[in-house]
Amino acid sequence: MEQNWINTEAQLPDNDQRVLAFIPGNKVFLPGKELEFEIREVIVLRFCANHFANDSSKARKHGLHFWAGEGSSNRYFSEVTHWMPIPTAPAI
Fold first, then answer.
1. How far apart are alpha carbons 6 and 36 in whole angstroms?
2. Sign of the CA dihedral 7, 49, 79, 9?
3. Which of 22, 48, 54, 68 lies at a 20 to 30 A Cα distance from 82?
4. How many C-beta atoms surround the C-beta of residue 60 within 10 A?
5. Calpha distance 61→81 (Å, rounded)
6. Tens digits of per-residue pLDDT, 22-73?
7. How far apart are CA 84 and CA 18, in angstroms?
8. Contact status, residue 37 vs residue 29, Cβ threshold 8 Å
9. Which residues pair with 43 in a beta bridge?
10. What pTM, to 2 d.p., does this model score?
11. Which long-range contacts (CB under 8 A, 24 or more apart) does 7-12 make?
């Protein structure tokens, strides 16, 4: 069954839910290559609801929520425009 991308303005994932996130123009710098990068607009992130609830200055600047990544792929809330649940693995 095909999943559709969900606009972050229409609906948000559950807190701590890992999702496929769409980040337009996302640059990923390549290890060992000076300033070389690839565009990877779909990455796995974990949604962190109300992450900046206790830091009003960061909440105003970056948004109340946050996207936690793996390694150095953390993203501020406004950077992700769409998301979808991670599909289930095929039965083997």
1. 31
2. positive
3. 54
4. 10
5. 17
6. 999 998 888 888 888 999 899 999 999 999 999 999 999 988 999 998 766 8
7. 9
8. yes
9. 21
10. 0.82
11. 7/81, 7/82, 8/77, 8/80, 8/81, 8/82, 8/83, 12/47, 12/49, 12/65
Q: Which two tokens stand for residue 36?
A: 């070389």
Task: Provide the residue type at 70 as one letter.
Answer: E
**Which residue in this structure is represented by tokens 């150095």?**
72
Tokens of 71: 């390694």
